[in-house]
Amino acid sequence: MFIKDYISKDFPCFSLTDSIESARSTLEDFGYTHIFIKKSHHFYGAIAKDFLYEAEGTLKDLEHQVERFAILEDNNIMDSIRLFYTFNSNVIPVINKTEKYLGYITCEDAFQDLSRYALFSESGAILTVEAPARKYSMTEIANIVESNNSKFYGGFISFMSEEVVRVTIKISNENLASIDATFDRYDYRIVEKFYSDEKTDLFKDRFGFFQKFIEI
User: Fold this and answer.
1) Does some domain include residue 211?
2) Domain-embedded: residue 22
3) Burial class (CB in 10 A: 0-12, 13-18, 19+), 48
4) Do 107 and 49 touch, CB atoms closer than 8 A?
5) What is the pLDDT of residues 82-104, one digit of tens each?
6) 3-class SS of residue 30
7) CATH number at residue 96
């Protein structure tokens, strides 16, 4: 799951002396949200596509719109999720430790990799349970599921404050009523539930699901 295993190299990194028109044309060919800029042979930053339609001339004229974001080649694919969300981008530049531009990864790269894992690929039930922050335990949550002969596929913290923690979990469809009752006995309140046997239902709003994931 290292970034270097997913790098594509066909999207250029522009110089500030390049024309806005050429950058705009390339961006339209690829359908990405940002172009990438290099300066003195080092990665410099990214410019969102909207700014390319507001000016003419060279990219130097848009230097004040450069955003500094990139991911190192040795990072994990999971590290890219927050960048996609924070910068509202469908493409992330990849650099090495000397800040040389190596290529890029796309949002689709991340989705395709993570969708192989049971948390996203298996059909089942999605529950959000709430507990007092002082007694929250992911181990206990998993044990409650498994003690009722259901499978625990994974989970993440979807909300946290000083008072309460909410955990969204994915489990198999067995013994759901018993699981609900056991959570109640252990003072976990079920605040959301989604039961389905169809995998396709779980992917109708994949990006919304990932937005919850990256707010950990």
Assistant:
1) no
2) yes
3) middle
4) no
5) 899 899 999 999 999 999 999 99
6) helix
7) 3.10.580.10
Query: CA-based angle 27:81:204, to the nearest 5?
Result: 85
Structural domain boundaries enclosing 134: 118-200
Count the domains in the chain.
2
Tokens (6 digits) for 106: 């796309």
Under 8 Å between Cβ of 95 and 139: no
Over range 32-52, report the average pLDDT: 95
Handedness of CA 10, 11, 14, 20 (dihedral sign): positive
Question: From residue 42, how far is each of 33, 61, 137, 152, 154 by CA, in Å?
Answer: 21, 19, 45, 45, 40
Question: Is 60 inside a domain boundary?
Answer: yes
pTM above 0.90, yes or no: no
Do the Cβ atoms of 105 and 94 come closer than 8 Å?
yes
Find the helix or strand (DSSP H, E) in which 25 lies: helix 20-30
Domain-terminating residue out of 64, 97, 114: 114
Which one, of 181, 191, 172, lies nearest residue 128 by Cα?
Answer: 191
